[in-house]
Amino acid sequence: MAFRPGPPSSADSFDSDDEFPFPAPLPREPFSDISHTFSPHEFLASLRNRHQTLEDLRSELRTRSQDLERELVELVNRDYADFIGLGSSVKGGEQRVEDLKMGLLSFRREVEGVVAKLMKAREEVERELRAKEAIRKKKTLARNLLTVAQRIEELSTLLLLHDTRDAALSSGPPGLLEDGESLTSTRRLKKLVYCWVYLRDFLLPKIPASHPFIKAQEPRMETIRKTILIDLASAMKEARGEKNDKRCLEIMGLYADMDAEKEAVKVMKDGKR
């Protein structure tokens, strides 16, 4: 069976989604107190324990604004019609009707002022939300870039790419690392392939391929890939020489994980010559 990577490391736990309870409706108090200057920073800070996505919060603010506008219009229209009808039914009530009309017009202007303030507050909150979303995306990108750099460094160290292999092997028995492990041991090859597949399939897709850092690391990543294939080829030749069919199958599975089946076939053909 082809080797497949296990669950992502703790470096990627930041991207996992947790299930949270449905948040309570937004309070009206921050928008209804006209004597207090609305502050989007204070409003967002008051929601720090609210488990809700930025898009859901933005949608709820739009809905709250529309509901308030509709309620205010209904209130003004209903009371205005009632007062006009009452004044018209009273003899000599024209002046009273006019007074009420002026009062209602004044009230309507106040309502329009509240609505305008609410609209401005909503725009400020949305602007702050967009800024926070941009910051979150930058932090996620930086974290992913750091993880990619760590994986490339780890692979380079495992493959002895910082120093020449001859220098790394000179201090121990021929073909062995300093810890006594063979360059072509199945355990070591599985670890190398795991790291490479995790880098290729889980980390790199999270970063734009055109990012300058990824472009700069492409030659280094290609060197890593070729070096792993060289070690796999050496291990395959050893397994065929030992007539170890089980190990040959394991190495073929590692070739499949590397998406290098053609290279495996070439090594097998070369071994028959």
From TrEMBL:
Single Gene Ontology BP annotation: protein transport
Keywords: Coiled coil, Golgi apparatus, Membrane, Protein transport, Transport
Domain Conserved oligomeric Golgi complex subunit 2 N-terminal: start-end pairs: 35-100
One Pfam family named in its UniProt record: COG2_N
Region of interest (Disordered), residue spans: 1-28
Bilayer topology term: Peripheral membrane protein
Keyword Electron transport: no
Location relative to the cell: Golgi apparatus membrane
InterPro entries for the chain: COG2 (IPR009316), COG_su2_N (IPR024602)
Coiled coil: 44-78, 108-138
GO cellular component: Golgi membrane; Golgi transport complex
Similarity comment: family membership: Belongs to the COG2 family.
UniProt name for this protein: Conserved oligomeric Golgi complex subunit 2
